[in-house]
Amino acid sequence: MSIFDFFVGIQGSFIASLLLFPILILSWVLSRQLLEKRKRKSYMFLSKITLGYLAFNGIILIFSLVATTVGIESHAISSFFNIIVKSTFIIFLYGFYRIHNKENFKLQLIFIVPTIVVILTGLFAPILGHIIAILSIVTMMILYGDKLGRGKSIYMASGLFLASLLLSIAISIVPSLHGSFYMLNIIFEVSSFTFLLVNLIEHSLIIMQSSYVSAITDSLTGLFNRRYFTKYINGCVDRSIPVNVIFCDIDNFKRLNDTKGHKVGDEVLKQVATIFKEEVQGIGVAGRYGGEEMVLLIQSLDVDMEEITERMRSRIEKETITTASIGYRMYDPSVPADLLIKQADEAMYEAKAAGKNRVMSYRLKAANILDVAANE
Q1: Where are the alpha helices (DSSP H) in 261-368?
Q2: 170-190 as b/e, with b when 16 or more CB fall inside 10 Å?
Q3: Residues in the chain where the model's pLDDT stays below 70
Q4: What is the distance, to the nearest Å, from the Cα of residue 131 to the centroid of all Cα atoms in its chain?
Q5: Per the confidence metrics, is the pTM higher than 0.85?
Q6: Which residues lie closer than 8 Å to 44 by C-beta, 6 or more apart?
Q7: What number of other Cβ atoms are within 10 A of residue 335's Cβ?
């Protein structure tokens, strides 16, 4: 008996189910986690179909094990299992469509009706059922392939599944084909569901990354929020990494909001934030400290602080409808992170007190400058 013969008939169904089992379990666990995190019906739908197929796969696994043990061999049962598996892939495609798009009843019918047709046809005419499945999947990939998920994993999954369907047709026509064809059929089938799992993992990672980014950035400007920026500078200082701090406040921002509206004010904030992100790229980070206040961290001591801060001030004046007062504090290993920020803030207030739209470096004699009115 050749090793390839293990992939034929009921034994082949057992091997395929055994290989699919961990993939389906992981897919169900991921879809459940996404459902709990995102609370969306689309994840509930994917979770339910995955659980349903997992249960059916378990039935195949148990039945195949028993049948193999007692020596029962039935081509009809193997064909039944095969056609259910082939039709389920179409429902999975709709499940992936749902997690990336809004619910659409007409599209739901476009995916579900072919699945039912494939099952009903395949029970009595397996070859015709497989042909309908091929045409359905090809049509769906042409029309909706770019809406089923990011990356190429969905296309890889569909391509492998189509190859599995073609082999199933060949096996149905010539059941006496060498066992290697049966083995390839199982490999392609299992690989297609593996790529669906890969797509779900990629989607989960994107969701996690998006959640993380949302937790550490300001939604309006895209700069780091105050909490993360404070954590970041504390980490640098604790590890004795030299950092210079820049503190910026947009001049007359309240008046700008009152006269031109908050929409214009928000646009100015985004423009200034863009300038800061461009200026610190590769040498530091920028954060929104609160309101119209922004704070920057320069991690390279080779940077001429007077030059870079003046360039920032000049760009804000030329590229936006406002100006900014900027203060900075050079690194001092004896000064803690919160005090570095406070002293850069004091230098910024000195710039405001001196007439706004200018740059000031921190000087010890400026320690009491916070008592000076901001002149908004």
Answers
A1: 262-280, 305-319, 337-353
A2: ebbeeeeeebebbbbbbbbbb
A3: 1, 71-76, 364-376
A4: 35
A5: no
A6: 35
A7: 16
